[in-house]
Write a structure and sequence with these properties.
Length: 607
Amino acid sequence: MTAPLTENIDSREHRRESTFIRLLKRPAGSISLAILLLLVLIAVFAPLLAPYDPNFVDLSITRAPPSPEHLLGGDTTGRDVLSRLIFGARITIWGAVVAIVTSIVIGVPSGLAAGYFGGTFDRIATWLSDAIQSVPGMIILLIVGANTGNNFDILMVTIGVFMAPGYFRLTRSTVLAVRNETYVDAARVSGLSNARIMSRHVIRPVIAPIVIQSALTAGMAMGMQAGLQFLGIGGGTTPGWGAAMNEGFRVMRTDPLLLLWPSLALGISVAALAVLGSTLADVMSVKTPMLTSRQRRRIAAKAAAGRSADEVSTITGSVSHRAADSAVRLENLRVKYETAKGPVEVVHGITLDVAPGEVLGIVGESGSGKSQTVFSMLDLLPKAGYATADAIWIGGKDVTRLPRAARAKLLGRAIGYVPQEPMTNLDPSFTIGHQLCEPLKSVHGLSSTDAKARALEMLDRVGIVDPARVMRSYPHELSGGMAQRVLIAGAIAGHPQVLVADEPTTALDVTVQAEVLELLRELQQEYRMALVIVTHNFGVVADICDRVVVMRNGAIEEIGDVSGIFSSPESDYTRELIAASLDGAASRAELDATQASSEKENEGVRA
């Protein structure tokens, strides 16, 4: 169901607000923003704030030191230094605005068109961008200044032209990354014009980089503007900071303060813009809050402290005998994620266990908390998430009381993992042999020879026809079913006590699904592993599992033996899932019968 329009608008407004709030929460962001806001206010209200006319000459204050009447003293011609600095802020900001607007007007539309359309325009625009960057800008500025009477606005427009290639390249690279996205194709197929697609769909990802680039460009424009004024370009009567620095430079041995004040003003302004730009980049690149290792330890300690000693003793006494007999046991597991609005709980205090040699299915619709449960077991939650539990027992050990480094050592040894979408879980840069042997050598301490022998043995065991060839192959040279078998081989190579398979058949066709399920069943029985299968399909549960946990909205809806769940489910939700999964779906027996019938027909045709 499509969300209401008002809900979408509120969501966008919240994202904008949360970005601004995250910026303010960072000291670097809030301080730099406050400095720039103060500078803008000084520039806007310069006529009200300046105590004197910036060009009024009073020979009595020539090179005068700071005093109550003239807080920063007088310059070499008898003008008030503070008044000239205040009006200089107005000139400096206006120059930066002119340069930035010019750069955006030239660079963004051209980069948008070049990235979206490509072709001849892209080649010509890229060549012009490279040509502009290769031209020595200062020489061109000197020529422009000499032929325009040092017109300040034209000089700043020229600076903007030389900064436009930065916006062009930034926009073009961003558009190239999104122009072939499916939502752009959908907009094109729906009949939207190219102009509307670019203005509504393609330009949005460019906005954040442009904001960051503008903060950095403003500092560069201020520096170049001051450099021109320092060289005497831009008007002799303009009360600019660069002109003041030039004046102070000539007398810095006798009156160093005349150089200090404009240098401080320019340096603080440029530094504030640079810090604001880098802070904006950090804030905008982080979509969700991230937890540091220290924060995770603090949360775990707080959760442990929240239980009294009697409660811990009661819990330990009641489950220790059962946990010792379990391959995996979760006690009151809760999973939370940090968001801009505060922590959000997605798994709500579930308890389950898996006996050695048992096959447990965790089933539920998308978003029910299945994967979050097994990720907590594997300690693979994203950085924004964290799990708390009274206890998580794996192989008879309560891992919640182990250091994280000790818990990590269980991976590949006590517990193995088979992820979904096999092609995306193999590194395309390395061969299959390298990816299978590396854990065997680093985790299990096998020699290169033994690791290769073990890998070949596991590939043969999972049904790979030519293990030696597959060892030399790269992931793109395998089919989806072969890649899934490779992942299973890697997971069982360390002979784990528990094997977790997260949607192991999702990305495979129906016949390959049956083969993979049959392989998992055989391996589980052969190695007497506990097998935990996460799936949304009750057909998989009926095919391979001994017990099933039905999850809904982060909680356990129902748990029991597969036969009992199928014959008499207690929950209406379970009945709906069973009906949805099995309605019209072929069982493995039917698939085998169909395949056998097809083979007989083929034999008859050949005969």
